[in-house]
Write a structure and sequence with these properties.
The structure is a single chain. The chain has a domain of 36 residues. The chain is built from three helices and no strands. The protein is flat, with a radius of gyration of 21 Å. The chain starts with 6 loop residues before the first helix and ends in a 6-residue tail after the last helix. The model has no long low-confidence stretch (mean pLDDT 88).
Length: 69
């Protein structure tokens, strides 16, 4: 069961997210070495390729007629 946060805490976290949320990736990239950035990019690229492949296979399975015995 999920715990409920007090409304004032939730509002504070939302405000912090709006002001600093978009800086996370840029700050992380700036603090990484070129090798770390390359590794992160490869991991993201492989994940995107797996997702595309899974979606393509699902479409192909949906379009094929069921086999009869």
């Amino acid at each position: 069961m999920a715990k409920r946060m007090p409304p004032d805490v939730l509002e504070y976290l939302r405000a912090m997210g709006k002001t600093t949320g978009k800086l996370g990736g840029k700050t992380a990239a700036r603090n990484m070495t070129p090798e770390e950035r390359t590794a992160r990019a490869k991991k993201a690229s492989e994940a995107a390729a797996r997702k595309r492949t899974a979606e393509r296979l699902a479409r192909e399975r949906a379009s094929k007629p069921a086999k009869r015995k």
